[in-house]
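Box S1 | Example of a co-folding query
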Amino acid sequence: MKTAGKMAVEMEPVAVAGAGGLRLYPGYLDRGAQMALVAVLRQVFAVAPLFTPGMPKSGRPMSVRMSNCGPLGWITDEAGYRYQPHHPVTGRLWPPIPQALIAIWNELGRYAYQPQACLINFYDAAAKMGLHQDRDEEDFNAPVVSVSLGDTCLFRIGGSKRSDATRSFRLSSGDALVLADGDRLAFHGVDRIYPGTSTLLPGGGRINLTLRRVTRPGIEVQA
Ligand code: SIN
Ligand code: MN
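Box S1 (continued) | Returned holo structure for succinic acid
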């Protein structure tokens, strides 16, 4: 268990079936660390408010709301999926990735380069996310490091082909998940939220943070 501001020796992930690169850390952040992270995220939202992303081509609204921090942020709209340095609605640069999140990457990522984007997804009680791969990055050797806050969700993950068998497990507030190596390109999604399962977010709902490395090693993005 990780407490706010304190670096521990990396805890052991629980085994999850996969292609060897899926690591689940149940209860990775204790309640204090979760609360500290929510406070930091409030500052992020003050600069980069949640917006409703649209699906490529159709522009159909997704059920999650999104924001980002870091020199790059992932967005989607009629023009497609991409990383860009500015918020699509305000036009402002994304705020920096908070140190508490960099520390999680450093502790769990097992990767030499720093994250460049942190996608923030907010799920209300009815939101979900269809099965997809995270493949808009240039560097698939870098992991995706995910942290969940608030209500529990039912997370689904399969293999690197859409037709591969999937399995499901719950992600609860404070859990961390790493997709790396053979599971870096695993299809994954969120089937449902279990409302009322956490008191962390006063209005309910779930926040998921995914830290990503976007460019190839050695190519840095100026903030
Ligand atoms: C994502 O794949 O972008 C989010 C996954 C999650 O909400 O756990
Ligand atoms: Mn994803």
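The CA atoms of residues 73 and 83 lie 5 Å apart. The radius of gyration is 16 Å.
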